[in-house]
Amino acid sequence: MEKMRFSWATLGCGAIACEMAEAMARLGGGFHGAAARNSERVRAFAAKYGIEKVYEKPEQLFRDPDVDIVYISTPHNTHAPYILRALEVGRHVLAEKSITLNSDELSLAASLAAKKQLVLAEAMTLYHMPLFKKLAERVRAGALGTLRLAQLNFGSYKPYDEKSRFFNKNLAGGALLDIGIYALSCARWFMSAKPEELLSTVRFAPTGVDEQSSILLKNRAEEMAAVTLSLHAKQPKRATIVFDKGYMEIFDYPRADKAAVVWTADGRREEITAGSAGDALCYEILDMEAAAAGETDAMHLDYTSDVMEIMTRLRKSWGLKYPEEA
Q: Of 87, 137, 180, 202, which residue is the least packed, with the fewest Cβ within 10 Å?
């Protein structure tokens, strides 16, 4: 696997930032600097991962001339202002999902990135998995025929806690932004155009965030997707992508490294493998660096924008607003 070429700093030092630091170590690199709201926690994070600089404030991170790429893994509702500040001072940005709260925030950030000729991307693992790239090649080659339907499940069991990030409206909680974004991104990967027709039903937690929903999508090509989400019921992360000539089964699709194709004509089952689930964040890092170097457009901000538009429209139809949007 390739080695890292750019200098990164992280804003946020939670569980996913730890995974990123470990992935960078496998690539022969690491974070140059780190910042977070809790100074004691960020110092412990820096010591654990051998990070050279600890910034007392985010502004110090943004102003560090040695930083090329800013990685943001703070709560969803803090992303937009941090993204804009990083872009303003000339830094590429990789932000955890969901990249922003809504389409307006993302549109503003994307416009600034384009103006500054910088890479802005969401850390959506499946866009970078070798398996998904391999499956996309099969689909584009027409081997499976016309896409008809995608069915995607994602369910987690989270004990109800009004203060946790999953259920707290002040932390932009809810199933859609936390797990639904994976299912919608997977559907968008295979659909030939963004969905324009949306139907849904939702169940709210006592805090007012969405804890369970069913979503139906259709685009102008008449391709459809059905998505089922829950924060209160464990279910497999399973995607079934149905075409004229067969269907794909993808398990644990956020970081999948294997899938199966079942052919309609004879029921034959073909196993497809590519990459490694354990290296998911390595692929993401390398694609981000290739994009920053101007070598590829593999970060798929167009798909990110389509998914954000879907989520914004869904929340509007549900009457769900976060405090920052009031």
A: 137
Q: Which of 97, 194, 218, 321 is catalytic?
A: 97
Residue 140 CA to residue 81 CA, distance in Å, equals 38
What distance separates the 2 farthest-apart alpha carbons in the chain?
Answer: 63
DSSP SS3 for 125: helix
Among 161, 119, 165, which Cα is nearest to 8's? 119
Residues 119-169 pLDDT 10s = 999 999 999 999 999 999 999 999 899 999 999 999 999 999 999 999 999
Q: pLDDT over 90 for what percent of the chain?
A: 96
Q: How many CB atoms lie within 10 A of CB 108?
A: 15
pLDDT digits (tens, 9 = 90+) for 7-40: 999 999 999 999 999 999 999 999 999 999 888 9
pTM: 0.96
Q: Which of 74, 102, 103, 104 has the alpha carbon at shortest distance from 93?
A: 74
Helices and strands (DSSP H and E) totals, the chain: 10, 15
Tokens of residue 106, six digits: 């993302």
Residue 98, preceding peptide bond in cis (omega within 30° of 0): yes
Tell me, yes or no, if 133 is annotated catalytic.
Answer: no
